[in-house]
Every structure is written in structure tokens, then in C-alpha cells.
Design a protein that fits this description.
127 residues, alpha+beta, seven-stranded antiparallel beta sheet, 3 helices
Length: 127
Amino acid sequence: MVAGYRLQRSITGAEATAAMDELHGLPIEVPDGWIGEYEGGGTIWVAQVESEEKAKELVDRMTAAIDDGTPFFTNLERSEFGDLVVYSAEGGGQRHYYYQLGTQVIWVTAPPGDEGTFFHEALAAVR
């Protein structure tokens, strides 16, 4: 449970990485992953890659694409939580947060109206 929202579905391994590829419309070379779908439209995506450099590259690519302008995301923001840099953007009526944590790239889609609480609890759970 995250911020009072129950986990409705969990996807792991090859099924999760295939969903990540499909979401991006191309293979993003993620060897392992986990996706948690929560009540209220919240989702947590965890992509496990082979190195911190690869994780940084993926975050940098997403940030550049959003910053250059996409039809999906707007209002890109950068925040710091201690030593962790977190980016956020709006899209599809929701707030999305993403960051690198070692060899993982984490993307959190917060339920509308409960963005801060969901993100902060997800951050604590995935950290």
C-alpha cells in the first residue's frame, strides 16, 4: 500500500520490460523491471539496468525529450531530496516523477489530487 492506495497489479521480469519498451515505442534495453499499478491511477515503474551510467543515460534521455517538448508531458521541474535529483512533469491529467537510484530508474505516476503524498511514500518505499 502506498499513501492508502492498494496495489492492484504487479508485473515483473520480461513482462514488465516488454511493457516499458511498448510505452516508449522502442527497445530501451532494460534487462529487468517491476511495475506496480495502484488504485486511483497511481503507478510505480522500476527499471533495473546494468550500470549507474546506463541509468543516468536513460534519465538524461527522458529529461531531454520532455525539455525539448513532447505532446505527452509539460511543465518539467527539477527538485533535490538530499543527494537525489528528482524530475517531474505533467501529462495525461497526472503528475509524474522520475529519478535514478543507483542502477535503477524509477518513474512514479501519482493519483490525481494526492500527488505529494503518493510520491513521497513511493520514494521512501523504493529508496
